[in-house]
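Long-time lurker, first post.

We've been arguing in lab meeting about whether zinc ion would sit comfortably in this protein at all. Half the group thinks yes, half thinks no, and nobody has a model to point at. So I'm putting the question to the forum: if I give you the sequence and the SMILES, can you give me back a predicted structure of the complex? Inputs are below. Any interpretation is welcome too.
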Amino acid sequence: MRQARSIIAGLVAALVVLTLAPAGPSVAATAKKPPLVKPKAKPKPKSKPAPLPAVKCEKPKFRIFVDVGHTSESFGALSARNDPEFGFNLRLAKLIVGKLKSEGFAATRLLVTDGKARVSLLRRVGVANDARADFFLSVHHDSVPDKLLEEWEFEGAKSHFSDRFSGHSLFVSRQNPHFAISMMFARLLGKELKERGLHYATQYTLPLMGRYRHPLLDKDVGVYSYDQLVVLSRTRSAAVLLEGGSIINRDEEMAMNSPERHGLIAAAVADAMKEFCERRQ
Ligand SMILES: [Zn+2]
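Top reply:
Settle the argument with this. Predicted structure of the protein with zinc ion, as tokens:
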């Protein structure tokens, strides 16, 4: 997700301006007599997308969008062995979609776009919003800030790695109109991953992460907030971003290349979604 972050930060900056706009005038200055005409409704602030009502979950009808992070053109991070993040995201997202469908979530869709990062980002969110998605899961793989990279050579090519950190991570936005529901799913998924012996990436609370530092909302299963991320804050449905693991860590990259690890994560997503759905019957 690393390369997208700076782009996202710039993109979101314009949107954030709206959230800082002052609220409308106070209603204290109303006339003493009751008004004869019903006053116009106060305009609502435009900072958040209008939330869709949180519907009950009926498995075959529950519209889950599994978003493949980045595009083949703007491919995200580069792994320790120089493979683009987009390929890892696509493989894992396809497995997740297949697993969810096999578990009865027939309306699950894979969301892939092409083009440059900024345009594709807005397009993916737009498609999900227009299709009245019930849930948005964005799939990525992790790297580290450039200052932590070390050099090595892989198959004769100068490459970069960092074996310092590993693990998956989960992000939610407190600006999402269904933050509580998003958090509920993120916790369930974190629990499922933990029960499968996987650990979460702990480095996001550390000062050395600089602008990539994020508050840890759940210390037990590793859920962080990333409030201004477009795919989490501009989606009208509940939304969670999953970093499947670190592809800049040389051992974890190999694990991420194995169908076993991705299969384990896809199964965790499906079990979490089943429990999430049951809780919302
Ligand atoms: Zn990414």
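For your lab meeting: The first helix runs from residue 2 to 19. The longest strand covers residues 238-246. Whichever side wins, do check it experimentally.
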